Backbone:
C-alpha cells in the first residue's frame, strides 16, 4: 500500500475537519497536534520518507495542506480534553525508528507471528523488511496450513509490487495460485470461505490472485494480457463484492 497522511498548518482548518459540534453518537472529535523540527525532517528525508507542503499545487490552497509519506512514526506525548468539545493528542516525530521498532519486535515476538510483523512493516512502507518476515514463516513455522502458505505468498507479492519488483510479484502470485488449485482438488481444505479482497486478513481467492496478476501486467504496460487476466478473474471463485 502506498499512501499519504494529510495534515494542515492551520488550526482553524483542523477544527473544521474535526467538527466538534456535529459528533456522531459513539465517536469523539480529536485534534492531532504534531511536533517536529528540521533535524528530524532531514533525517526522515535521508531515510526516503518524503513530505511536502502542497498549498501551491492544491485546488484548496487555503487548507495549507502538508502531506507525509507513509512510514513516519509518531510518538504520543499527551492526550487531554479541550474546552471546545475536542480531544487534543500531542504527537512527536520519532526519527529513531530502527532501534525503537527493534525493541518493539522483541516485545511482540512472544505474542505475535512473523506474519503480523510483516504486515506492520508493510504498512510502514518497509517493504523489503516485510518480505523478510513473511519468508521467515516458511523456515521457522512448522505445520503451516496450505491456505496459510498461499496467503503468505500473496502478501509477499503485495510487498514486492509496492517495491516495484513486478516479476517477483508475479512469481509469488503464481505460487499462491498453484496452492489454491491444489486446495480446490483436496478434501482436506475444500470448504474455504473467501471474503472480499479488501477485507482485513482476507484469504486470497483464485479471483483475487488472477486479478492481481492482471494488475502486474497492466503496470508493465502489457495491456492485452492484463485485460485477458481481468476477464479470467471474473470467471473464478471469489466474493460477490469483488466482482
Residues:
Amino acid at each position: 500500500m502506498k499512501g499519504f497522511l494529510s495534515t494542515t498548518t492551520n488550526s482553524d482548518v483542523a477544527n473544521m475537519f474535526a467538527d466538534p459540534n456535529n459528533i456522531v453518537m459513539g465517536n469523539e472529535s480529536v485534534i492531532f497536534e504534531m511536533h517536529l523540527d528540521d533535524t528530524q525532517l532531514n533525517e526522515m528525508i535521508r531515510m526516503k520518507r518524503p513530505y511536502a507542503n502542497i498549498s501551491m499545487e492544491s485546488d484548496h490552497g487555503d487548507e495549507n495542506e502538508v502531506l507525509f509519506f507513509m512510514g513516519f512514526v509518531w510518538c504520543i506525548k499527551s492526550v487531554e480534553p479541550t474546552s471546545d468539545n475536542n480531544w487534543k493528542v500531542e504527537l512527536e516525530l520519532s526519527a529513531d525508528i530502527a532501534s525503537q521498532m527493534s525493541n518493539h519486535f522483541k516485545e511482540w515476538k512472544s505474542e505475535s507471528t512473523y506474519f503480523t510483523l510483516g504486515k506492520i512493516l508493510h504498512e510502514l512502507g518497509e517493504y523489503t523488511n516485510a518480505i523478510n518476515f513473511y519468508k521467515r514463516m516458511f523456515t521457522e513455522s512448522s505445520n503451516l496450513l496450505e491456505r496459510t502458505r498461499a496467503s503468505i505468498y500473496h502478501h509477499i507479492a503485495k510487498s514486492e509490487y509496492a517495491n516495484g519488483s513486478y516479476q517477483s510479484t508475479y512469481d509469488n502470485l503464481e505460487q499462491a495460485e498453484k496452492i489454491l488449485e491444489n486446495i480446490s482438488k483436496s478434501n482436506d481444505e475444500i470448504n474455504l470461505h473467501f471474503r472480499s479482497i479488501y477485507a482485513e486478513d482476507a484469504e486470497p481467492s483464485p479471483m483475487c490472485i488472477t486479478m492481481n496478476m492482471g494488475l502486474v501486467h497492466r503496470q508493465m504496460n502489457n495491456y492485452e494480457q492484463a485485460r485477458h487476466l481481468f476477464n479470467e478473474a471474473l470467471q473464478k471463485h471469489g466474493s460477490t463484492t469483488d466482482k
In short: The chain is about 50% helix and 15% strand. The CA atoms of residues 204 and 219 lie 20 Å apart. The longest strand covers residues 73-81. Confidence is low (pLDDT under 50) at residues 188-201.
